[in-house]
């Protein structure tokens, strides 16, 4: 049997239970059923399967309870463990491997978990568990037992015969001592004995087990004619890419909506920053004396789309990263579907917050604006915020660690900001730094906002024909709006070029992020 065939016939429940904490138990099972079921289910069939699993795993009473996380407790550890089992048996696997199913549980919870697994064996499934220190009640529910010591099989056979085996080896079970306690002592290294004594004891037990197997092999058939179970010839994923995208988007949007404290914090941050910055440009006019202030207004609009939204966007993956790795390994969805669905759902907030910021800035600056100017200013800020988020998310995927990404990102962004046209005009940039200006999205955003406000503006107040040489030197050529644009080393005809470059940058970072994230998940 190949590894691929084994993967299709079995399911694996890992020791650590990781889930999306904002979802309820029923929502978690429903999401898993939509993506893992080998058959296309209608709504009635889906709910029937989910309810059946809830009853089977004794989770019905907490079906509408949020799963919670390590920092936000909700479900008990036993309930989380049973939820993990329920998610894995959705595909009805003949074999279920469980790594430390009782780890971290008290004796009662351990018994409840093993009891739930025992129930699965009555339905014809084979359940294989690794347990380091089983209690008596847990041990008594085992049919077959394998004991390992120093990488060797010390015993493999019916659990009821293990006492007789150790008695045959010369280690009979004492009175008033449970079987698991006894054989764990026998095959474990004692602190007071030498390494040689321990090795000799293990060799004796292993040899006795091999002798017992040879004796049994002469009296039992190999069942070589047993018909193997047909292995389904299925694709890697049960659902199409677009179905994966839709279900993940819905889950991510639900998760985002329920993180209201985070959304409220971002809203307050946006309001405070926009009011503070808007106050710096309060009642600004299109006048010669305010032209330097307008340059600050335009550039800070570009800069704040990055400062407000870039760092929060970088953290979007890391909280759920273990869940994504596990779900990908379970063939629930492709990394590209997750990345695009998650970033799309997360980007909804970055359509709203830039609008709030832009509205406050425009209202407080009191610049002469039209529907044309308002629309372009909003669209430019939205595109810049989405581009900033795409940059942060792609760096998070490439760096693989939040701290590393937050360290590397300024190294890329700060030089591009310096050559964005505000600190130094395009004409004054040394030739060896021009490539940085060509790829600076700060420059294209700054240019676009300047063009939008001044391309149709006529004569600028305070810039008469009788301006002195000193005034022209300090204020630049400001006689008209197009002249002011020209003085900034910008071109009026470049507006749609600016849009195109910003969109191209957004697309580039999105594609790079998909590739980097897919590579990282596949090698995890």
Automatic annotation (TrEMBL):
Keyword Zinc-finger in annotation: no
Lineage: superkingdom: Eukaryota
Signal peptide limits: none
Residue ranges annotated for the ABC-2 type transporter transmembrane domain, each copy included: 244-454
UniProt xrefs under SUPFAM superfamilies: P-loop containing nucleoside triphosphate hydrolases (SSF52540)
Recorded GO MF terms: ABC-type transporter activity; ATP binding; ATP hydrolysis activity
InterPro entries the record matches: ABC2_TM, ABC_transporter-like_ATP-bd, ABCG_dom, ABCG_transporters, P-loop_NTPase
Membrane-topology annotation of the record: Multi-pass membrane protein
Record has Cell wall biogenesis/degradation as a keyword: no
Residue ranges of every copy of the ABC transporter family G domain listed in the record: 132-187
GO cellular component terms listed in the entry, alphabetical order: plasma membrane
Keyword line: Membrane, Transmembrane, Transmembrane helix, Transport
Subcellular location: Membrane
Residue intervals of the ABC transporter domain: 6-103
Chain ranges passing through the membrane: 261-284, 296-318, 350-371, 377-396, 408-433, 496-519
Record-stated family: Belongs to the ABC transporter superfamily. ABCG family. Eye pigment precursor importer (TC 3.A.1.204) subfamily.
PANTHER family: ABC TRANSPORTER DOMAIN-CONTAINING PROTEIN, ABC TRANSPORTER G FAMILY MEMBER 28
Protein name as it appears in the record: ABC transporter domain-containing protein
